From TrEMBL:
Residues 1-213 form the Heme haloperoxidase family profile domain. This is Cloroperoxidase. Signal peptide: none annotated. GO terms for molecular function: metal ion binding; peroxidase activity. It comes from Tothia fuscella.
């Protein structure tokens, strides 16, 4: 792991995962000139998503940016810097759990106070992990906070996308709790120390027990 601050000319974005992948070398460490294949492979190698799912995530991101031409030869030559993936109301949205809204001026860099609010949304607060209830509570709170700033409600595509991001947060950082039952929707838990290390430092929290699924 090498933080972006130690890499000359590093390009980074608002997505914690992409920044983390670059910091660990799953993507080019400077975050520049990244191909479709490199985006796909980084997801496969770092968090072990199925290749089809990894490719679907990449193509959805690029489709929102409007950069795909649906021509195999031209798409193969496509290269993007990470900062180019940070486009408001396309790939980036308000009411993030770790970033300010665009109207607040800085929607790219992590805000430690927002991460702490995420960790404090557990009931009781003494829990040392996040679960589906706490992350759902965070999503509702952040959307209300965004509305209070005068921003419009999240469009449906970002509403569902934000839910997906929250679900992936628990999936990727899970502590491997027991299988789900009809009586227990909070089976999947993510230790707070893992979440904090990942979101604040943009580093896979191996020292806190994180392992690729």
């Amino acid at each position: 792991w090498i933080p972006a601050s130690q890499i000359n000319g590093a390009s980074r974005t608002s997505c914690p995962y992409l920044n983390t992948a670059a910091n660990h070398g799953f993507l080019p460490r400077n975050g520049r000139q990244i191909s479709i294949a490199q985006f796909d492979q980084s997801i496969i190698d770092s968090i072990n998503f199925h290749p089809d799912f990894a490719h679907a995530i990449t193509m959805a991101m690029l489709g929102k940016l409007g950069v795909l031409v649906n021509n195999t030869e031209q798409d193969a030559s496509l290269r993007l810097d990470l900062e180019q993936t940070n486009v408001h109301d396309k790939t980036e949205h308000d009411a993030s759990i770790s970033r300010f809204d665009l109207s607040q001026g800085n929607n790219k860099n992590v805000q430690t106070e927002l991460v702490q609010d995420l960790l404090d949304d557990t009931l009781p607060m003494a829990y040392n992990y996040l679960n589906t209830s706490s992350v759902g509570r965070t999503r509702v709170r952040r959307e209300r906070e965004s509305l209070k700033l005068g921003n419009p409600p999240l469009p449906s595509i970002f509403f569902s996308g934000a839910q997906g991001e929250a679900g992936l947060l628990l999936t990727v950082m899970s502590d491997g709790s027991s299988p789900i039952t009809s009586q227990n929707a909070d089976f999947r838990r993510a230790p707070k120390e893992r979440i904090k290390s990942w979101l604040v430092n943009e580093r896979f929290p191996t020292e806190q027990g994180f392992k690729r699924s």
